[in-house]
Each structure stands twice: as structure tokens, then as C-alpha cells.
Amino acid sequence: MNISTTRGCALGVALSGCLALLPAYAGEAAEQPGAGSKQGDIGAVTGLAIGAVAAGPVGAVIGAAAGALLGDRYHRQAQSSAALGEQLKQSEVQRAQLTDSVAQLDGSLSQARARGDELAAQLGHTDQLGLDVGFRTDDDSVAAQAMSPLLKLGALAASLPQAEVWVAGFADPRGSDAYNDELSLRRAVNVAAVLASAGVARERIHIEAHGKTEAQEADGDRDGYALERRVTVRLQLPGSGEVAGRD
Questions:
Q1: Tell me: the pLDDT tens digits for 66-95?
Q2: Up-side HSE of residue 93: CA atoms within 13 Å toward CB?
Q3: Domains, the chain, ranges and CATH?
Q4: Do 14 and 58 meet the contact criterion of CB atoms below 8 Å apart?
Q5: What are the tens digits of pLDDT across the range 32-61?
Q6: What pTM was computed for the model?
Q7: Which residues have a Cβ under 8 Å from the Cβ of 91 and sit 6 or more positions away?
Q8: At what angle do helices 3-29 and 38-124 cross, to 10 degrees?
């Protein structure tokens, strides 16, 4: 048997061993990320060829294994790079969305400030911003139809922290002074509670009870009495002058 025949047999043995190892490698690679990758297969074949030429049968086996590992590593790196690129792309999209949200918020805040300044300017030129709440005879409960206007006025006052709110209770001329003083106070307190529920700080609400001291209707004028049973609510900014309803 000549040398070339011996080498051929050895190469055949090496190739058989390499082929026997490949299923085991495939089973191990299947448990790893990127298993069965095209780059790993190419690396194994390339390593086998180079190893066979450079170092004979043993080199073929070693070259095949090394080539497969290098090819699989390249495949994993390519997958990692692709995943990183996708994450960076998503981050850019999120950053653009956040920038847009901040811009919209700035616009909303600017509009709110402009509206607040406009309201403050209007309030500064008048002392008539307010409303009157009527009551039934010998009653201190706020009527349902008065709730909505009160809540709206309270929301306006809450948006103007420099504004003070004056709540004054009145009663018609029937009954004693002491009774009407107490009744008008209860009416004013109940109205103030509605304003507070709309967000007005209680320290900005000033409550007064006038009883029947300012009643102007003649005794027996029942229609006129309805105008006396009331609570007046007025808003005032510092320096805007006397509060409406106090003159």
C-alpha cells in the first residue's frame, strides 16, 4: 500500500469521524441562540476543507469544529446588531413622541395662562362679577337650580388665586333680629361650602351675615320678601375697589 493510499484512507476515516460529530454538534447548537445558522454551516464546511489541506485528517476535524463555532459566533453577533438597531429605532420613535407631547403640553399651558390673564383683566375692571342665590321662607338649603352657577363661579375663583370671594347672607324682615341673623349666616355658610367644593380655598372665602338689617320691602309684601331672602356672592381682586353688594 503506497503513501497516497494511506493518506486517502486516513482522510476517509477523518471525514467519517467529522460526520459522526456533526449530529452531536447540531444537538448542542440547537440549545444555543442562532443554532443551525447558515453562517455556522458555512464555517464548518470551510474549516473542514482548510483543515484537511493544512493539516491532514486531524486538521480537517479540528478545522470543521472551529469553523462551525466561528460561523455561529458571527451569526449571533449579526442577530445582536440587528436587535440593537431595532431598539435604537424604537427609542428614536419614542423620543419623537415625547417631544411632541411636551410641545402640546406647553401649548395647553400657554393657552391656560392667556385665559387666566384675560379673566384677571376683566375682573380687574369690574366689581360686579358674581351672582345672587335665592332661598325659600325659613330655609337655608341651596336650591338645585343654583348649584350649577355656583360651581362655575367657584371654578373661576379657583383659577384666580389672587381673587377673594365675599359671601353675604340676608333675610326678609319677618321674625326677630337674632333669628334672622342666625338664618342668614346659615345660608351664607351653605353657599360657601358649595364654592369650596368647586376648589376655592376656604381662607379666601369671607362670610358675612346681615340678617334683616338691609331689608327694604314693606311688611306684608310677600313677593318683595323673596328678593330679601338671598345670599350674594362677589369676586374681588386686590385693588379693584369696593366689593359689589356692599354699597
A1: 566 666 676 777 778 888 888 888 888 888
A2: 6
A3: 1-125 (no CATH), 128-236 (3.30.1330.60)
A4: yes
A5: 544 555 555 655 555 555 555 555 555 555
A6: 0.49
A7: none
A8: 30
